[in-house]
Amino acid sequence: MGSFKQSTYWQIWADCCNLHKAFYGIQEDDTPSWEKAVEAASEIQKKYKQTPEAKFAESLTLLVVSELEYRTKSRKGGVSDATKKQKSGTGTGNTPV
C-alpha cells in the first residue's frame, strides 16, 4: 500500500476541498451557482462510484454542500452566528452572570 497522499481517500479529500473553495460564500438566492455546486458534488460522487471509497465520497460531498447551505443561512441578514451569539451573550466566555 502506498502513502495516504497517493490514496483514493486523499483524492476525495482534495476534490471536496476544491468543491468547498469553489462555492464558499455562495449566496442563498444564487440559483445558478447552487445548481453548479450540486452538479459538481454529483460529479465527484460519480467519479468514485465504482470504488470501495464510494460511500466516503458520497458522505463527504453531502457534508460539504450541507456546510455551504448552513453558512449561507447563518449569514442571512449579514450577521454571522458568532456575532449573534456574542451579542446575545450566549457565545463562549460571554455568558452573563
List the helices and strands and how they pair.
Layout: H1 8-23, H2 31-47, H3 54-74, H4 81-88
Helix pairs in contact: 1-2, 1-3, 2-3
Mean pLDDT: 85
Q: What is the 3D form? A: elongated
Radius of gyration: 17 Å
Individual helix count = 4
Question: End-to-end distance, in Å?
Answer: 56 Å
Task: Please describe the biggest sheet, giving its number of strands, its sense, and whether it closes into a barrel.
Answer: none
Low-confidence parts: 79-83, 91-97
Strand content: under 5%
Assembly classification: single chain
Helix residue percentage: 55-70%
Order of helices and strands: HHHH
Q: What report would you give on this structure?
A:
There is one protein chain. The chain starts with 7 loop residues before the first helix and ends in a 9-residue tail after the last helix. By secondary structure, the protein is mainly alpha-helical. The chain is elongated and about 45 Å long. The protein has helices at about 10-25, 30-45, 55-75, 80-90. The chain contains four helices and no strands. The protein is about 65% helix and about 0% strand.
Short description:
The chain has 97 residues and is mostly helical.
Features:
97 residues; disordered C terminus; mainly alpha
